[in-house]
């Protein structure tokens, strides 16, 4: 034994080969501070061992190394800049030390080699992977850039253009693509990986592979002349500006760092990388995106734990109500392998549901993401029917009929009389109280809400709504089913609008009042999209949702929470709806929708909408527009947390991110408030308190701000 640590070991094999094995105590290998320290100690042991002629690096886990330990980042990044710089510089020097070992090194990569794991492979002279490998530098998804030499070694290995595409998108690469780009030297079957690595290393030791030349390439300046350099980095900057925009500093920093380091050798280039990493670590975007990662882990962990506790397996599903939403739910269930009955009372509705599923599949085939087998198996898994009797074998039934409490209650009651005694019944209602709907059932313990978001196949979130009488087993089984469907389930307690729509409608109400006070809806949309970062501004979003749907839901919310969500007099949404403007569905809303000469969709502000709003226009500054929309949303989110509708701020943030497309660089509604500073948010809300109850903060939030507490403590 050359070296024995908690996370990695080195053993001397025949022929002078040191076999370095990563095998941490947990389920995966990560580069936490303990592992980095051990890697440094390992290098010292290898340097002092005279019999070592080469080193093979591999993993004993199902994945090579998944990256750095992100759980260490929050504490680490709260340190002064100098201390963060010291940490990242020392860590990257450990990778340099491994790269500088006086003999050839080979990485044998299985499963994920991401972030620091990818950087470990880059510090080796040669790389062989098996067919399960996924290699990449996803730091951009955390608002960061590689910090252990990735921006230095990868461009010198595969070229600046390829490297910047890898790093600025953060996408992991399949082994065939990685090999085509030059990041791998061979790809083999999993059972041949170790032997292939040993064989490659032996060739290097015997001089049949020039490993010194490969190493020199990674430590030298980039081989670009002045014209090539200008073209490469100008193109990269333009692409990043177009795709990432101004809200995400990390990809911009990567391009600048690689460009500035192009003429430098390793030491100077690494210094630039370390400095760039520290600057990004201190940005709000990094704090938000790291927060998203940890919140996502929390949500998924809770979901998996609940699913494991379920004793009921969903083998057969049913959807009541076809159409676009029902068809979308049936598709999502069927594509993940669950046979699904789709029931409606009209043949044309069933056809619409089947058409929706077929449309999704055909688009997938056009993009190369769906093959003929998947298309056929998915459509075969959907059984359209007009008969209730076909529900008798269903383990779960999802009601997705019209958003009317009387209609839903009647359908649920009839369903209960048809299905088996242990079948679970769910309602895909977006606003109607689950407790209210449960009154129509004899066994409310097997009933809950299962709220999907449109379009179903794209939106990750499913709200699982627990009623007063819903059993734990019902919740566990539905969570397990949602996970099987490929969705992210978040369990919330019942209230009007549940979590997502409950916080969305104060945002809409703030928008409506702003229009009545003279704001231009086009200007508001521009601010909320370009400045705040929403994928759609409020006017456009309401048009997409449908003004009829928005108006109906506003009525439900007003009845359920009258103290804050009373209907606004002359509400523009209601005015447009009553004038027959339904939004995208009939081409007329705040905007008029159509197509140009080439058949591309068009969206133009509707003069009719301005007339129906009827307010004398005036300009509002950006900060006021944002505040008047976001303060009501944040206040309602706080109340949801205080009332126990949602269990944690992290889950609320993920629900808005996955259900509404909350801007990721802001991290979620609670992270947004904390980035502003709770005291500053309280002062901002107080500034607009005279606008009504939606703008008045809770005593709990005021106390949190005064005492310097955090929602993420």
From TrEMBL:
Task: Name the keywords, alphabetized.
Answer: Fatty acid metabolism, Isomerase, Lipid degradation, Lipid metabolism, Lyase, Multifunctional enzyme, NAD, Oxidoreductase
Any one GO MF term held by the record is: 3-hydroxybutyryl-CoA epimerase activity
Catalysed reactions listed for this entry: a (3S)-3-hydroxyacyl-CoA + NAD(+) = a 3-oxoacyl-CoA + NADH + H(+)
Domain named 3-hydroxyacyl-CoA dehydrogenase C-terminal is located at 497-592, 625-708
Q: What class of enzyme is it?
A: lyase
> Is the Lyase keyword given for this protein?
yes
The yes or no answer to whether the keyword NAD is present is yes
> Its annotated pathway?
Lipid metabolism; fatty acid beta-oxidation
Might you give the EC number(s) for this enzyme? Answer: 4.2.1.17
Indicate the segments forming the 3-hydroxyacyl-CoA dehydrogenase NAD binding domain, all copies: 317-495
Family matches, as Gene3D superfamilies:
1.10.1040.50, 2-enoyl-CoA Hydratase, Chain A, domain 1 (3.90.226.10), NAD(P)-binding Rossmann-like Domain (3.40.50.720)
Q: Which Pfam families match?
A: 3HCDH (PF00725), 3HCDH_N (PF02737), ECH_1 (PF00378)
Listed GO CC annotations? fatty acid beta-oxidation multienzyme complex
Q: Name one GO biological process term.
A: fatty acid beta-oxidation
* Family listed: In the central section; belongs to the 3-hydroxyacyl-CoA dehydrogenase family.
Q: Write down what this protein is called.
A: enoyl-CoA hydratase
Task: Identify the taxonomic lineage of the organism of origin.
Answer: Bacteria, Pseudomonadati, Pseudomonadota, Gammaproteobacteria, Alteromonadales
- Write the gene name: fadB
């Amino acid at each position: 034994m050359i070296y024995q640590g908690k996370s990695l070991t080195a053993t001397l094999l025949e022929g002078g080969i040191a076999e370095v094995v990563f095998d941490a105590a947990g389920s995966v290998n990560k580069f936490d501070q303990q592992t980095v320290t051990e890697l440094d100690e390992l290098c010292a042991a290898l340097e002092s061992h005279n019999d070592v002629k080469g080193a093979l690096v591999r993993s004993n886990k199902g994945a090579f190394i998944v990256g750095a330990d992100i759980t260490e980042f929050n504490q680490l990044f709260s340190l002064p800049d100098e201390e963060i710089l010291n940490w990242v510089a020392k860590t990257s020097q450990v990778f340099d030390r491994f790269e500088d070992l006086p003999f050839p090194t080979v990485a044998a990569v299985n499963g994920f080699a991401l972030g620091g794991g990818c950087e470990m492979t880059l510090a080796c002279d040669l790389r062989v992977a098996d067919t399960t490998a996924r290699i990449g530098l996803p730091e951009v998804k955390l608002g960061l850039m590689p910090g252990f030499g990735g921006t230095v070694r990868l461009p010198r290995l595969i070229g600046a253009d390829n490297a910047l595409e890898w790093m600025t998108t953060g996408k992991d690469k399949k082994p065939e693509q990685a090999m085509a780009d030059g990041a791998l030297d061979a790809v083999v079957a999993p059972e041949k990986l170790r032997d292939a690595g040993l064989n490659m290393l032996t060739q290097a030791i015997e001089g049949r592979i020039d490993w010194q030349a490969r190493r020199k390439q990674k430590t030298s300046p980039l081989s670009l002349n002045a014209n090539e350099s200008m073209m490469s980095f100008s193109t990269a900057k333009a692409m990043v500006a177009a795709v990432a925009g101004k809200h995400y500093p990390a990809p911009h920093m990567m391009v600048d760092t690689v460009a500035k380091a192009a003429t430098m050798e390793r030491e100077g280039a690494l210094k630039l990388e370390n400095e760039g990493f520290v600057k990004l670590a201190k940005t709000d975007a990094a704090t938000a995106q790291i927060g998203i990662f940890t919140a996502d882990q929390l949500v998924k962990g809770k979901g998996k734990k609940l699913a494991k506790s379920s004793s009921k397996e969903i083998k057969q599903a049913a959807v009541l109500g076809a159409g676009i939403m029902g068809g979308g739910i049936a598709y999502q269930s069927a594509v993940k392998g669950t046979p699904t009955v789709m029931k409606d009372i009209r043949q044309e509705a069933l056809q619409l549901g089947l058409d929706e599923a077929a449309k999704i599949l055909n688009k997938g085939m056009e993009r190369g993401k769906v093959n003929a087998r998947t298309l056929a198996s998915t459509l075969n898994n959907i059984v359209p029917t007009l008969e209730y009797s076909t529900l008798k074998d269903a383990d779960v039934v999802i009601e997705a009929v019209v958003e009317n409490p009387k209609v839903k209650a009647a359908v649920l009651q009839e369903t209960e009389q048809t299905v088996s005694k242990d079948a679970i019944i769910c309602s895909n209602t977006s606003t109607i109280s689950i407790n209210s709907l449960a009154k129509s059932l004899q066994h409310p313990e097997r009933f809950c809400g299962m709220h999907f978001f449109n379009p179903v196949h794209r939106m990750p979130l499913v709200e699982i709504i627990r009623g007063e009488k819903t059993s734990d087993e019902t919740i566990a089984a539905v969570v397990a089913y949602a996970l099987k469907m490929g969705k992210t389930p978040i369990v919330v307690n019942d209230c009007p609008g549940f979590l997502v729509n409950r916080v969305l409608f104060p945002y809409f109400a703030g928008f409506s009042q702003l229009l009545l006070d003279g704001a231009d809806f086009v200007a508001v949309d521009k601010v909320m999209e370009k400045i705040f970062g929403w994928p759609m501004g409020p006017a456009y979003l309401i048009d997409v949702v449908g003004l009829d749907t928005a108006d109906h839901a506003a009525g439900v919310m007003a009845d359920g929470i009258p103290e804050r969500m009373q209907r606004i007099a002359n509400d523009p949404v209601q005015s447009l709806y009553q004038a027959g403007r339904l939004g995208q569905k009939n081409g007329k809303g705040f905007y008029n929708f159509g197509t140009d000469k080439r058949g591309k969709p068009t969206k133009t502000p509707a003069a009719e909408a301005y007339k129906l709003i009827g307010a004398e226009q005036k300009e509002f500054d950006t900060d006021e527009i944002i505040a008047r929309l976001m303060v009501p949303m944040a206040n309602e989110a706080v109340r949801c947390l205080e009332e126990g509708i949602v269990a944690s701020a992290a889950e609320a943030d993920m629900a808005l991110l996955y259900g509404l497309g909350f801007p990721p660089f802001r991290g979620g509604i609670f992270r947004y408030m904390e980035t502003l500073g709770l005291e500053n948010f309280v002062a901002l809300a107080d500034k607009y308190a005279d606008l009504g109850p939606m703008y008045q903060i809770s005593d709990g939030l005021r106390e949190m701000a005064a005492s310097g507490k955090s929602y993420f403590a």
